[in-house]
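Appendix B. One record, verbatim.
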Amino acid sequence: MIHLVLKFSEFCRASDLKVSTSEVLDCLSHMELVNVADETEFRTVLCANFVKTARDRSHFDTLYDIFFHDLSLDEEAMETDDRLNQNKERADIVDALRRDDPGDGIDDSIIDFLEGNPLNFLEDLRQLHASEENMSKVVKSNLGGLSGRLEIMLQLNRAHNRIIQFMNEGSSGSGEGQYGSGTGNYFIRRIDAARRMLSEEKKPENTGIKHVKSTTETGTGLGNKFFSSLTPAEVEDMRDVVEQLVRKLKDIVTRRWADQSSGILDVKKTLRKASRYNGVPIDLTYKKKPPRKGKIVTLCDISGSVWSAARFMLNMLYSMHECFSKVRTFVFVSRLAEATDIFDGNDINDAIEKVMSGIDLDYNALTDYGETFHEFRKSYLHILDRKTTLIVVGDGRSNYFNPGERALEEMREKCRRVIWLNPEPEKFWSYGDSEMSTYMAYCHEVRPCQNLNQLSNFIQELVL
């Protein structure tokens, strides 16, 4: 049992599921308290010790099924002679695969996987993921690692064909197979497991995501009209509406803080002052605890119709900047640029106009979310902390560039939460070059932001 758990922990580590030595020791001690012959109890103990967050649960389930089911030997019910015979047949086939011509042969890592040692194959997959990310920076395509995957798939197909050939070869011209069907099924099942590990896209489970659906409100009011369809006159009217909404929210926040300004009773200071009045607590003292203010970092896509929604969101955020300890703004198209100084040094409406003219960006370039996330991770990751709310405003359309979700994952790990506002209708989020289905796995909250009603609802939840 100890050897089996150790092998599985190595398998998990090679598949990017972090398992520490102390967790392995705890798991072994817990195994003594359960019936390891009961798979439910056995699996529960492994899961309780190896899975740290709910986001890792699906990855653990996949690894468990591959290691204990697809890669298992299933020899318990076999007679001793049959077991020895199959072991010899498997060894003969593995030796034959290793003797193949190197030019047309099969990689040693795949042969090791078929033989029962998956670690080298997992290392190849890890290097493949690393090469995909590095290649995406040069080629800028979400198909950057396709050639590497195809090469491994061709190797697996070649191994599959060679094993079928071994199984069909006659013995002494009798026409009967040289090897038993159990041996063939053993190898075919392992090849299928390798194919699934290669083809399945590993994404973290994100069951806790808050997905705010589009409202079904209808009407001709300004609050229900799409930002992208506003006329210049309606934009001016919208600014007045935003100002009124901001004043209302500020009043609510001020009253709320005023009600809480007294804080909680400070017992020590109250009793100390009570000594002046023969121990009667006439003068009550409260703990003055300032209200907590969070930090806001925004990444705004300023291309096309996305900017029509982003500018109103920025308007409301900076109009209520005293509700936050810090607001930093970054805008992007194909690359990233910070616009915080523009908003800090100008009137909000003037700043919004200067963003479209005073920043060194190619506004006609194709939007590249992956490059934006990589650039932010490289230069600005340090500004994120556990008090920071990261707000991304964009439609998630990457123009088939690499989506850069690994960089977004690192950004998520550094900040308090990631909120994505999408000005596109939800029914279009998973079509064409949209990567929203990919990005949603790394967000705490996603919500549509097509009109003022939806935006104001979000701002109220953010500050109240």
